[in-house]
Design a protein that fits this description.
The complex is a heterodimer.
Chain A (H helix, E strand, L loop, with lengths): L6 H10 L1 H12 L6 H12 L4 H11 L3 H10 L11 E6 L2 H5 L2 H12 L12 E6 L11 E3 L2 E3 L7 H18 L8
Parallel strand pairs in A: 1-2
Antiparallel strand pairs in A: 1-3, 3-4
Helix pairs in contact in A: 1-2, 1-3, 2-3, 2-4
Chain B lengths: L6 E5 L2 H5 L2 H13 L5 E4 L11 E4 L5 E4 L7 H10 L8 E3 L6 H7 L17 H6 L4 H7 L3 H11 L11 H10 L6 E6 L8 H8 L1 H15 L3 E6 L4 H16 L4 E4 L4 E9 L9 H8 L23 E5 H13 L1 H5 L9 E8 L5 E6 L4 H8 L9 E6 L5 E4 L9 H6 L8 E6 L4 H15 L5 H18 L5 H16 L4 H5 L2 H20 L12 E4 L9 H5 L5 E2 L7 E2 L9 H5 L5 E4 L18
Parallel strand pairs in B: 1-2, 6-7, 6-10, 7-9, 11-15
Antiparallel strand pairs in B: 1-3, 3-4, 4-5, 8-9, 11-12, 13-14, 13-15, 16-19, 17-18
Helix pairs in contact in B: 6-10, 6-13, 7-8, 7-10, 9-10, 9-11, 10-13, 17-18, 17-21, 18-19, 19-21
The chains are: A alpha+beta, B alpha/beta.
Bound molecules: flavin mononucleotide (FMN), iron/sulfur cluster (SF4) (3 copies) and FE2/S2 (inorganic) cluster (2 copies).
InterPro entries (chain B): 4Fe4S_Fe-S-bd, 4Fe4S_Fe_S_CS, Nuo51_FMN-bd, Nuo51_FMN-bd_sf, Nuop51_4Fe4S-bd, Nuop51_4Fe4S-bd_sf, Thioredoxin-like_sf
Family (chain B): Belongs to the complex I 51 kDa subunit family.
EC number (chain B): 1.6.99.5
Amino acid sequence: MMKTMAVEELQVLKEKNPLLAIDAIVQRHNADPGSAIPILQDIQNTFGYVAPEVLQRVSELSGILESELYSIVTFYSQFRMEPIGENLIQVCHGTACHLAGAERVSEAIMHETGAKDGGTSPDGKFTLEKVACLGCCSLAPVITVNEETYGRVAPNEVGKVLKEINGQTEDKKAGCKGGCHHE
Amino acid sequence: MSNNGFKVKIGLASCSIAAGAAKVHDLLKDLLADDGIHLQRTGCMGLCYCEPQVEVVAPDGRSYLYGNVSTDNVGQIVEEHIKKGEPVEELLVVPPDGASEAGEYIGRQERFLLHNCGNIDPENIESYLDAGGYKGLAKAVAMKPEEVIAEVKSSGLRGRGGAGFPTHQKWTFARDAKGEQKYIICNADEGDPGAFMDRSILESDPHSVLEGMMIAGYAIGASVGYIYIRAEYPLAIRRLKIAIAQAKEHYYLGTNILNSGFDFDIKIREGAGAFVCGEETALIASIEGKRGMPRFRPPFPAVSGLFASPTSINNVETFANVPQILAQGAAAYNVHGTEFSKGTKVFALAGKVNRGGLIEVPMGMSINDIVFAVGGGISTGKAFKAVQTGGPSGGCIPAELADTAVDYESLKEIGAIMGSGGLLIMDEETCMVDVAKFFLTFTREESCGKCTFCRVGTEQMLRILERITEGEGTEEDIDTLEDLGSKIKAGSLCGLGQTVPNPVLTTIKYFRDEYEAHVRDKVCPAKNCKALIEYEIVAEDCKGCGLCRKQCPVDAISGGKKEPHVIDQATCLRCGLCVNSCKFDCITVSSKPGKTAPVDGQGMGAVS
Ligand SMILES: Cc1cc2nc3c(=O)[nH]c(=O)nc-3n(C[C@H](O)[C@H](O)[C@H](O)COP(=O)(O)O)c2cc1C
Ligand code: SF4
Ligand code: SF4
Ligand code: SF4
Ligand code: FES
Ligand code: FES
């Protein structure tokens, strides 16, 4: 049996040959019962989204019906079927954040980036997602940008934060020698 | 250079990290390295309201807790306290004698379950073992499984996932059920928005949950356990993985555990973002790799659960209680709490409260004591209006009933539920109709769609609530809500549908006048509902600085330099962004009778 791959190895493999990365992911879970969701989660982690085209391949390799895979991807809100922008912003709309003005934060971000809820900004830089409770309610309102959490977000300062972050990703890209896709 | 006898700890849970603790940790580590002092990482110290926190234990054993520590002031703590022995009074939140606000916050609690949180290093099993970890398991495997269950029975432990079902009963059913293979599942889905108890426990004391699962596995005769955890908790997942690996290295997980012949393995499954998967049959379907749809019970999971095998499914906090019940004995546990609700309960105290955080209080403490004695009262300086318990399935309890004891029976009596432990504190600026609408919006999206009443009824209730908050509601609407609510409760298959109407029904029950103000006078007393409010600039106070004008997304504000500005009501979206931007507090919000404003269909101010 093929050795199970670490997340970083999958990233490298994906750059070389996306199909092989999918094979490796399926291989990694195939022995487990009920592996459909972990397989799809790994695909999303590696590729950023689950492209409808990959479902057929996964189905061939795993023996899970394509329709079943499709029904999972559409049921669970975690799965995206389209690629995301350079930065993923998640705005918490849980109870504490709602009371603390999450709407305003979302509005400010939409205004600042041009991204609609669930969509990507026209320049491809920001994807905006509403999520329910990130578990840091005492710091409400809370957002995460590329998995980093920011608490007590003031709507009128969100723009500044986003510009900074965007500056950082530009820097990172400039310093990157290719190959790596993450930070 | 040598260690001068000081010990230093820093809380590093995701809440603390969001408040900047990781940067403080890195700097502090460097600063302490010169003196050969080891900086110990811990989980959540529980005082969310003054994160990040650093605890300094002096050579004489006295503990000093610093709060709101930042990279700007951490050097001062090292220089003055650790090098010169002079505590930095102004940064101290809990002095050694505990005489402070935060001292009171901690002092009023009974930290039975959270005793390791903020003390041990969650990424190091040795730290857990030093604190007495895995003694409960050792005791359990030396007993007969039936004796383990009997011990849990006499502790009085009830499930902390919401319903309060007696844990020993669940275990007995699963033990008695026929099946070669049995399973334990830990429900770490924590879907209630506004709840973070389980996350904190998992990030701060992961081994206690693993140990609880192992003891449960031994008790019912299971050899495999699954932890179903929401993907939004990456740090908790990482720490669980570390804990599982370390438990295997130390032979607490694996085969023939502690030479008892007991085998047990634990696997992690990440949720994929569906609230309904917190419901046990949906959760099981999800682990099996299917859509998370609840199914009819019976058969109960204890008889036919995961992969059609007997399965006991419990909540994170339930499991975390078990090792201590075994290690210290049931009697040490049931001294806490009331006659029918034994032990302590962990709550996530949040909302408009001064001292929000992760708290643990004995069952039976009154809401008032939690809000005022522990939480230090309302943060906005406004009046305390209500507390919401139990998340989307729970209810809103008005301030008048705040002397109610927090235990399963008393809460049920007033139409609320204990739930899993989210406590949202609301002040007079919270609109109760909006709160009801908020929860319905949430649950409508999460209904799996199987039952007509849950799917369609929820949608209809939401439409009515939207109408009311937009000033288009009628008196009959309130009655219709009540009627629909009771029908949805009766006609739904799973706990989601059965409890969906609770936030609406309790707010109508206790805040009917507020609903009536919306439908009769078209007024939102809390000045919250966009269609019923107006933002205005007080001309006398306005300095004409133009900050608000720059902030407004739709250019609704006009005015010359140094001249009073005005808001064009026809353009204004009522987003409130200008209020935040004015440094002179001259933008007011009001809700006057008969002034419903059409809200423009842009952004999230959209009227559907
Ligand atoms: C819609 C819905 C969501 C639920 N979400 C959770 C949850 O996030 N965590 C949890 O422990 N229990 C949740 N429950 C309750 C579980 O179904 C189950 O009763 C609980 O995990 C049992 O554990 P206990 O006996 O230890 O309380 C939920 C129930 C429903 C109906
Ligand atoms: S009550 Fe709602 S969530 Fe539960 S099974 Fe029915 S439709 Fe699905
Ligand atoms: S409430 Fe929003 S839209 Fe209205 S004036 Fe203020 S900033 Fe502009
Ligand atoms: S920010 Fe305040 S002071 Fe400045 S123009 Fe606006 S209302 Fe006037
Ligand atoms: S409600 Fe936003 S973090 Fe919990
Ligand atoms: S400090 Fe951890 S939950 Fe807040």
